[in-house]
UniProtKB/TrEMBL annotation:
SUPFAM superfamilies: Nucleotide cyclase. Residues 1-43 form the GGDEF domain. InterPro entries: GGDEF_dom, Nucleotide_cyclase, Rev_trsase/Diguanyl_cyclase. It comes from Aquabacterium olei. This is GGDEF domain-containing protein.
Length: 43
């Protein structure tokens, strides 16, 4: 089993709404997947 996580902090300057925060987290998830197994990315 492998795990890739993406996350975003609500204090991020681009997190101006819930939708923007979710988009940041989603982008980080795909960055983690591109980087390979067992990866964590946080914005």
């Amino acid at each position: 089993m492998t795990l890739s996580l993406g996350g975003a902090l609500s204090s991020h300057p681009q997190a101006t709404s819930l939708e923007a925060l979710m988009a940041l987290a989603d982008g980080q998830l795909y960055e983690a997947k591109r980087a390979g197994r067992h990866t964590l990315r946080i914005a």
